[in-house]
């Protein structure tokens, strides 16, 4: 079904990340939908390993300049954009010196999770939502990939609940076997600052617990990896949300 507006929110996409299933799948899904005549946009974090020169990223001045308040601190939002190499498909990058300049993704050189991974996810989620509104582009489908994107539906259904901008958008969540890690125990205070409370994930805040939590805030959950880790698979089986087993990329438009 062409002529849909499809928003991919992801933490990974080939060629900006290589050698992961998620990066390959998101690339193929976005390109397939784009080539079938849909209006496709992709949003992802501008992690430090992504070369601005190699991929020709440039700042979008008219979209940058907003501040997002995280835990009572103003953090400047910088938006960069590039075309997928060799394609006319635009990829938007959420950037902030404090959160995304570092060269590692989620853990330091010793393998310890960054203390501010929770704030980075909140900033990314809110940055995407605010930028889409500023673009004045209303998606029909929002497809989430990667744990940071799981904060988007939580925010849309709580903090932005009275905002009608996304009211008709259908949200798809793909589940992947991502490495789990603890999130800052004070995340409850940071979310409370945005009037978000009562989440089950706050009992034991981890990457995986927030992905599982987000299943309650979307329209459809689909397996992004064919075989999920045991606890993720269990949560998939138990969720009351509409769900789909693993679909190859050629069948993904059945969901939309």
Automatic annotation (TrEMBL):
Annotated keywords: Glycosyltransferase, Transferase
EC class of the enzyme, as a word: transferase
Pfam families: Glyco_transf_5 (PF08323)
Catalytic activity: [(1->4)-alpha-D-glucosyl](n) + ADP-alpha-D-glucose = [(1->4)-alpha-D-glucosyl](n+1) + ADP + H(+)
Key word Glycosyltransferase present: yes
Domain Starch synthase catalytic: 5-178
InterPro entries hit by this protein: Starch_synth_cat_dom (IPR013534)
An MF annotation (GO) of this entry: alpha-1,4-glucan glucosyltransferase (ADP-glucose donor) activity
Name this protein carries in UniProt: starch synthase
UniProt KW S-adenosyl-L-methionine keyword: no
EC number: 2.4.1.21
